[in-house]
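Subgroup meeting minutes
Present: P.N., E.W., G.H.
Scribe: E.W.

1. P.N. recapped why we're keeping a running log of single-chain structure predictions: easier to compare across weeks, and new members can see raw inputs and outputs side by side.
2. G.H. added today's entry (58 aa).
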Amino acid sequence: MGRGRAKAKQTKVARDLKYNSQEMDLDRLTKELHGDVPNQQNQDDDDPFAEGNYIPRA
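Output recorded in log:
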């Protein structure tokens, strides 16, 4: 037992996603799909221990 409340919540979320309109920036989506998005700094560059960014101490 106990699945009734969880299932009701999932149903509510699914219904909200289906019927409520979401704000979408279609121009931005089009640019992203066509590869016209300006290059943004990769978040991996901020991590000093990410692959390729490690600087050994002298």
